[in-house]
Amino acid sequence: MKKIIYALTVILFIGCTSSDDKAKIDGATQFIAGMEKFNKNKELMDNGFNLFEEANLEAMFATLSEDFIWNNADADSLTKADYVEAMKGWHSEFENFKFTERKYFPGVDDSLYIPNGSVRVYGVWNYNHKATKMDFTTKYYGVADYSEDGLQTVDYEYFDVGGIFLKLQEAQ
Fold first, then answer.
1. Listed residue (151, 143, 96, 103) closest to 120, CA to CA
2. Residue 137: closest CA among 96, 87, 81, 105
3. Which CATH number do you get for residue 81?
4. What pLDDT digit, counting tens, does each position of 10-65 carry?
């Protein structure tokens, strides 16, 4: 009898929930799921930056999906092969990379404006040019998306590439 009364109470409670309440519950559930994905993906992104600093490029490249899309400071929709070549290029010309002042924020869904698991990051890259020993400090902003299996699928990067090479050109 207790079970029947309990079941009827639960059914009555659920039946009395308004569509507004259901939408709020659904939104809260999606928000929590998005934040859980963000927290997991933030760690993945942070690890990628650490691997780049350590010049462990092969391990960093292993964190990218095969259909990875790279949108850098001066181009978009580049391939994984383009990204691999560029990262090797940075390490061939520069050294002592340190990504400091890292601040991570959740990305949001374009229609619902709730966290969707993507990661936004602000920070400062410090490094030096191998040939000239010139030191550089570059502000950086990036956005990354990840697959369910933890591979990075998209990367958007914004920083002053032109300023770096202008400074090198002026020094010569």
1. 143
2. 96
3. 3.10.450.50
4. 555 555 556 666 666 677 889 999 999 999 999 999 999 999 999 999 999 999 99
Q: What is the pLDDT of residue 7?
A: 56
Residue 84 confidence class, pLDDT cut points 50, 70, 90: very high
Q: Tell me the residue ranges of DSSP E strands in the chain.
A: 64-72, 75-78, 94-108, 115-129, 135-146, 152-158
Would you state the structure tokens that stand for residue 167, as one six-digit string? 């400074």
* Residue 54 lies in domain: 2-171
pTM, rounded to two decimals: 0.84
Q: At which residue do the structure tokens 């990036």 appear?
A: 142
> How many domains does the chain divide into?
1
Burial 107-135 (b: 16+ CB within 10 A, else e): bbeeeeebbbbbbbbebebbbebeeeeee
57 or 110, greater pLDDT:
57
What 3-state DSSP class applies to 17?
coil
| CA angle in degrees (0–180, nearest 5) for 26-43-30 | 5
Structure tokens at 145: 């998306």
